[in-house]
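Handout, section B. The chain below has 321 residues.
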Amino acid sequence: MSTIAFGTQTFGWNIDEKESKGLLEEYTQAGGNYLDTADSYNDGDSERILGSWIKDIGSRRDDLILGTKVFFPTGEDVNNTGASRKHILHSVESSLKRLNTEYIDLLQIHCFDKRTPFEETLRTLDDLISAGKVRYLGASNYTPSDLMKNLMIARYTHKEAFVSLQLEYSLLVRSPEWELIPMCEREGVGMLAWSPLAGGWLSGKYRRGKDIPQNSRAGRKDRWDDQAEQRGSDQAYDIIDVLHKIAEEVGHSVSQVSINWVRQNPAGIIPLIGARTISQLKENLDSLSWSLSDDQMKRLNDVSSIGKPSPYSFIERYTRE
């Protein structure tokens, strides 16, 4: 898999089909091969546009790793959401048609579903692999305990298990370091970091004491789930200040510095990036051409540190290596 993955949530939202296909060509021509979407993105338009491009490229489909997700509502009916057998099976059939493909490389449960038994979800996913419609399974937005329980049930019932986890991770969201990341390392679960630029907050466009640009995600308020204390806090601006200083030192953009901090995590986390323009995509992909120094990583780690709550802090002080 590529060391940077490409997310297509913008397709059919704030960019049209022609622009979307241009981005796909740019990413794949640069050597990228993992494309991520979801059945719920823009009423299915993200999958539909991606599927149209897959039809255009024909035999190149086998060179790609195509990931989609299921959980969030795709209709008004009560059965059009969640991780139940009924919804997963219906969603996968619909996704296969929109994506113009006979199989999905990585099918991910987009969010943990409290209302569906673990066993039902895992049995359904296992059946899809047996039927040849799905190659691998992944999770997204799971707690450590729920992910571990799923892994154990799959292991002891001889079902296919999750091989990857999508988690929100960036200089502004470091809590996965407490348990999720170490657990995935121990269990051999690969990790993709969604929102490595924290919805644009780590891209360089926001500065302390300056008005938020109106034509930005924060300015348009389309990051509806972000709270002020998550993004516009004093620590957030402290992080942004250090990012700008390091960007000047290395002669690269703030967004590249932010992406490389994720990419250089010892756990081997793959940043999942999005883009609206070719120039944005090229800039973010250029982060692969250079690396942060140990000192620069330390400065970013220090300024973004959120500490560890109990019992993680206690264990860190007293456990044996």
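Note. The beta strands are 5-7, 34-36, 65-70, 104-109, 134-140, 162-168, 190-194, 270-273. Compare this with the example in section A.
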